[in-house]
Specification:
Blueprint (H helix, E strand, L loop, with lengths): L10 H4 L4 H4 L10 H8 L1 H20 L4 H25 L12 H10 L8 H6 L11 H7 L4 E3 L1 E4 L9 E2 L1 H7 L6 E5 L5 E8 L4 E10 L2 E4 L13 E7 L2 E11 L2 E9 L4 E22 L7 H16 L12 H15 L30 E2 L4 E7 L2 E12 L2 E14 L2 E23 L8
Helix pairs in contact: 4-6
Length: 445
């Protein structure tokens, strides 16, 4: 179940909230902007129906995995809702695009629960019971657990003259294009390797694989898994007796994707992909209250209750509640000040993000501690006062993580001033499910 360090979101609540949408829903009862947008798009509505059928089939075929399936579906629904809410914010008045929400990928995953993994991914999938909670590299962690998996070492190469092989024409060309972040892969007895470069703010890869014949390096065709993708981790490994080129992605705390291409002695074969889905935990990294570094455990309690709810449905309105009288008047004034041109709420398309106030405590140093344009406002009660709450993911420029930032503000003399804040880590937990899925096309990596 979804656990936190001192904080737990109960399983019964998780397995009931939102499940009407898990298998399709009655559009006559659509209750929020996300559901209404789905119903207004025939293509997306049809995909939602297909998803519902795939989910029901998965529950029927895998009764032993029903708890994991329902929990994982809730995680996926939260991501879908956030993606749709972002689209609606950035494209006001436009119909929902069928590509938003990653429906086909989810349907493929549910269907893939019944698929047989090809070699050598079958060995990886069969060993997943040994995978530790919180894993970010399935092959490295299975190797540490004593399974027959060995990951090749990346050897830095700053000078083409230091390349330890005699290059053919293709490899000489690749060596001539070395940049500051280049290297090759080394594993004892491995008959194939690759010269690689990786760089740029998007961490993009260039690969030049080669056969090893004695001291010679002979260029071979690049596997499609390595076809110019970014924000991934490339590698090579021996799984049992097989050598594979690998691409590892960790798009969220809930998911890891391992793509492999098997070496057949002369070339790399077709790609295969294993998707792993995980539970996750919410854990407060630190908190602070005004003035400077004041104790703030009581705000942590209030913030974690809000984060636990918002994590299940991270869209505007989730934390809203009815206010009356002076509380409503004060909150509306705070919200208006936050949304003003000089306010604290980040504006869509802006390259500058508001920061989580830490009052000098430094508890979020080294973390992504800037609010992004998806941040939401809501009322939060703290020490007998209704304040303006702000919640959103951590950002640095265009980069975004899974963590939650939450802060409280009050209006004093017509200006907003920070009162308290918490940084909440979202940590990968135990493995829930794995499935063989079609690998993405190169342009979609």
């Amino acid at each position: 179940m979804r656990k936190t360090m001192g904080w737990m979101v109960g399983a019964p609540l998780l397995l009931t909230a939102g499940m009407a949408c898990a298998a399709g829903f009655d559009c006559g009862k659509a209750s929020n902007a996300v559901e209404k947008a789905i119903c207004a798009s025939p293509k997306v509505s049809a995909l939602d129906g297909q998803l519902g059928e795939a989910f029901r089939t998965a529950l029927k075929n895998h009764p032993d995995k029903s708890i994991a399936l329902k929990l994982d579906q809730l995680h996926w629904l939260a991501d879908r809702d956030a993606a749709i809410a972002d689209f609606l914010r950035d494209n006001p008045g436009k119909p929902l695009a069928a590509t938003v929400g990653q429906y086909p990928a989810r349907i493929d995953f549910l269907h893939g629960l019944d698929a047989k993994a090809p070699e050598p991914l079958d060995a990886v999938q069969g060993a997943l019971s040994h995978l530790p909670a919180g894993s970010s590299d399935v092959l490295a962690d299975l190797g540490k657990a004593g399974l027959p998996v060995t990951v090749a070492t990346d050897v830095p190469l700053d000078d083409a003259k230091a390349f330890p092989f005699e290059p053919d024409a293709g490899m000489r060309k690749a060596l001539g294009a070395l940049d500051a972040s280049s290297g090759y892969r080394q594993l004892a007895g491995m008959p194939v390797s690759s010269l690689f470069s990786v760089g740029g703010t998007a961490h993009c890869w260039t690969e030049a694989p080669f056969r090893i014949e004695g001291k010679k390096a002979i260029a071979v065709v690049v596997p499609s898994a390595w076809d110019g993708d970014c924000m991934t981790m490339h590698g090579m490994a021996r799984i049992g007796d097989d050598i594979v080129a690998t691409v590892l992605t960790n798009p969220s705390a809930d998911e890891m994707n391992l793509e492999t291409s098997r070496w057949d002695g002369g070339k790399f074969g077709p790609d295969a992909q294993l998707t792993l889905r995980f539970d996750h935990a919410l854990s407060p990294l630190g908190s602070a209250c005004a003035p400077k570094q004041s104790p703030c455990d009581d705000f942590t309690t209030a913030a974690m209750a809000a984060v636990a709810r918002y994590d299940r449905s991270p869209v505007p309105g989730t934390l809203d509640r009815s206010l009356k009288g002076a509380a409503k008047t004060d909150f509306d004034a705070m919200a208006a000040a936050a949304r003003a041109p000089s306010g604290i709420v980040p504006k869509g398309g802006s390259a500058t993000y508001a920061d989580l106030p830490d009052f000098g405590a430094g508890f979020a140093d080294g973390e992504m501690a800037g609010y992004g344009p998806e941040a939401s406002l809501f009322p939060i009660d703290f020490r007998g006062e209704t304040l303006l709450g702000v919640i959103g993911h951590g950002h640095v420029g265009w980069r975004i993580n899974d963590d939650w930032l939450i802060s409280a503000w009050r209006l004093t003399g017509g200006k907003l001033e920070p009162v308290a804040s918490v940084y909440v880590k979202v940590k990968r937990g135990s493995l829930l499910l794995s499935a063989v899925v079609p690998p993405p096309p190169p342009e979609a990596r």
